[in-house]
Amino acid sequence: MVVAGEIMRKEELDSFLKLLDGRYREGMESAITRIELDRGQYIFLEGNAADAIYLVEEGVVETNHIHGDGKVYIQQFLYPGDFFGEGVLYDQPLYPYGAMARERAAVWKIPKNKMDEMIDANPELRAEMNSVLGVKLDQAYYKSLCIAGEKVEKRIACILLKAIQERGIGDDCGVIIDTPLTNRDIAGLVGSTEETVSRVMSKLKKEGVILTNGKNLVVKDREGLRRYFDEY
Predict the structure, then answer these.
(1) Average pLDDT for consecutive 10-residue bins of the chain (232 residues)?
(2) Distance CA 112, CA 85 (A)
(3) Where are the beta strands (DSSP E) in 115-163?
(4) Structural domains in the chain?
C-alpha cells in the first residue's frame, strides 16, 4: 500500500524535516511516499536503478546480496530512523544490494531529484546526510573486521557483541538482543552455513554464554562472549 503526500506524523520523519527551512518543507512533504510492506516483500532488488533514498519508519528492513547459487548474504538490519539507498547521494546508478522487510514494516521513499534539491538548499541537511554516510562507513568497516579472514567462532562472537551494543536491552537474565536473529540470519551475516552456526551457537548455550527466551536471543555472559571472541 502506497500513500502519497500523507501527513508526516512519525518522529523519525519529523526529525528529518526539521532540518529544512519552512519554505522547502511543504515541497518535500508533497514529494515523499509512505510504503507499507509485508514480511519478505522487497523494496528494491540488487541492480535496480537507484532513484530514491529511504527512511525506515517502523519494523525491520534487511539489506542483502543473493549469490549465484541462491545463498543470501545479509549486509545489515535497519531500524526506525535508519536511512538506506544512500548511494544515490553520490550518483550511484544502481542499488548494490537488495532491501526487503524482515518483518512487517513501513518506509518513506524520498526521490533522488528532490533529495538533491533539498541538500543543495540546506547546509544543515547536507551535514546530516554526511553524518549518515559516515556512520554507514563505520558500520561497514566494523563488519569487515568481524569477518575478514577470521574463524567462524570469532565472526559469530563479533556479530553478537555488535548486536548487543546496538540493540541490547538489559534484564535479570542478561542482555536481550531486540531484533529477530535466527541461526540462518547469523549465517547470512557472517558468510557461513546454517549448520556451522548452529554448532557454534549450541556450544555457546552449553557454556552458559547465551540462551533463548521465546523468539529473542539473550547474551547471559557478556564477558564470556568477549573471552570467546579473544580466544579465536
Answers:
(1) 41 65 64 90 95 91 85 86 87 93 91 84 78 76 67 87 82 74 87 90 92 84 84 70
(2) 10
(3) none
(4) 2-133 (2.60.120.10), 147-231 (1.10.10.10)
